[in-house]
Design a protein that fits this description.
Length: 267
Amino acid sequence: MKRITVLLAIIGVIGLADYVSPSVWVAYNDCVYREGEFIADNVTTFAIGRSNPHPESGNLIKLSDGKDTGVTVSFIEFKTVGSLNWAGDAAEFPDGTDAAEIFNGIVDPTGNISYGDAPGWYLDLNIEGLDPSGVYTFAGSVNRNGAADYADRVTNWKIMGADSFVYASSADAHKVSDDAVEFVTGANNDGYVAKWTDINPGRDGDITIRTSHGVGEENGGMAGANANKGYAAGVFMLEFQGAQAVVPSRKLTTTWSRIKSSHSMRE
């Protein structure tokens, strides 16, 4: 009996080894970093737009130790290519807001990637190399910190290409649908964030976060949003939550059954 118990333990360890989750991690990117601004160690600065001095793509690194996550991000603008601007307008996320809780002390909210010069523009943040069996959290925000008349400058955030996800954006942000949210970014004094948790990318390991102007009230968007003025990016965070729960394979179950049956026959 003792030998059978030991054998079962060994098989259990071998059979379940494939289901052990890799270490979780978190990575941050400041899309508009200028020398002299505050930025924590191990934060990347990939960006896009006129006057942008940083690469438009590259690998995210772990905030904890600077090691490569194996996840590649890239910015690609569409329709009004060349009109997005990399701007250094001073901004902050007020203490106690969702954006402050996620980003303050790690990145400086100063700066934004501004709108295209005509309706229909959008910016894709492509995220590739994700673990197909893993789940992730994405959060993004931006604050132009403009005057009162900037309150019609709205950004639409949309997650695309994921097999599954859970909407988790700021409670008072305007939810367009489970995969899209809008809020004022011309003066994001409420520190709203676009956020999804439990994101599973599917077999290809890729997702896209698309930002653009408001989609219009008739399409479920915010009322009174400017036709093209909205801010495409500021800061974002990606967190690897771990592997999805996996049901043990039939092979493991079959092996268990055979051993149990053999033991019963001996008795």
